Amino acid sequence: MYRVSPADGVAWVTGASSGIGRGVCLELARRGYTVAATARRAPELEELALEAQGLAGRVIPVPGDVIDRAGMEALVACVEAEHGPIALAFLNAGTYVPDAAGDLGGEGFQKTFELNVGGATNCLAPLVSRMGARRKGQIAVNASVAGYGGLPRSIAYGASKSAIIVMCESLKFDLDRSGVTLQIVCPGFVKTPLTDKNTFPMPFLLELDDASRRICDGFARGGFEIAFPRRLAWPLKALNMLPYGLYFKFVGWATRGS
Ligand SMILES: NC(=O)c1ccc[n+]([C@@H]2O[C@H](COP(=O)([O-])OP(=O)(O)OC[C@H]3O[C@@H](n4cnc5c(N)ncnc54)[C@H](OP(=O)(O)O)[C@@H]3O)[C@@H](O)[C@H]2O)c1
Fold it and tell me: Mind listing the pLDDT tens digit for each residue in 130-144?
């Protein structure tokens, strides 16, 4: 399995203006990477580039909207023309809109799918064709442990993250043949502006620096899935192997009052 190093080219991170994407940009820069950082808010990206000054690598702001498919094609072409081949990509831009049965198909539902699934796909397409032609590259897509199975108040989010996991499982068969490494990242709860809005208890909540280090360690280690913390990810995986009767009983009990 191909694993990237800073000598192979630049890293590209989406959703880089806050939370996990921002943390991973700084961690990659600490590890010597030149990182192209994408999100819609350009001032936050400029601030991030300043914060990275003095690290072994650097951060280059490349603002963009991942929902814009043609825009992502152009952005990838521009990054490669100006800074060299993208060797490592972390497709992380995403959102969580809590929902319930009454929200099915509503605005939050559509936004979740458009960004979490559509946005990732818009970035994957140019990367797959360019890295495939070079027969070299590493791509990690940020899913979530919430994609393992249905959880309360996570109808669109859980389904969007499940879609990412299954899309990547399927895509891996093709990418293995073209020499491109594909990974999924399945974090538990990480303290970010996204989770700061949650009013329910978040077991084993991780600090951002810790999560960013674990993700970058996972890039270096290889393997299809980067899941953490294990004390949450593994029981959730095991729960999904139970017969549905037991699964719904246990998850309903564990999340009562949430
Ligand atoms: N935090 C957690 O506990 C957790 C756990 C598992 C998985 N995740 C996943 O981790 C990812 C990041 O979450 P986070 O917690 O770090 O959230 P966050 O702090 O809200 O960050 C979301 C990032 O996505 C960017 N973004 C949103 N819409 C975009 C668009 N259309 N185009 C480009 N960038 C866009 C935002 O920047 P702009 O607004 O500037 O565009 C921001 O940088 C998400 O995919 C989330 O599902 C998070």
Answer: 999 999 999 999 999
